[in-house]
Design brief:
This protein is mainly β. The chain is built from no helices and ten strands. The radius of gyration is 13 Å and the shape is globular. About 30% of the residues are buried.
Length: about 110
């Protein structure tokens, strides 16, 4: 499985971004997926997770109410809509399968200025 993240950029605090994750292969729709982030000098952390069918989602407390995870299984694509961004959201964002991880992609840089 190859994972390709995109959609990052530089945004002011309070702004929004939508990240995309495209997965290769035919088994995307059978797997839960998740977004992770890694800030400079910190370990990679889970941000949000979505079930295979999209009906169940989970968010870490730091992003609850601001981020929305979704997926389109017909397009092998997962999204992360990030609203009300804060400087502490600055990180490289990655996607992966939470239970049977694939090789990590390059990630997409999100930088939030104050």
């Amino acid at each position: 499985v190859q994972l390709v993240e995109s959609g990052g950029g530089l945004v002011q605090a309070g702004g929004s971004l939508r990240l995309s994750c495209v997965a290769s292969g035919s088994k995307f729709r059978f797997n839960a997926m998740a977004w992770y982030r890694q800030a400079p000098g910190k370990q990679r952390e889970l941000v949000a997770r979505i079930s295979s069918g999209g009906g169940n989602t989970l968010y870490v407390d730091a992003v609850k109410g601001r981020f929305t995870i979704s997926r389109d299984n017909a397009k092998n694509t997962m999204y992360l809509l990030m609203d009300s961004l804060k400087p502490e959201d600055t990180a490289v964002y990655y996607c992966n399968r939470p239970y049977t991880p694939a090789d990590w992609g390059q990630g997409t840089q999100v930088t939030v200025s104050s």
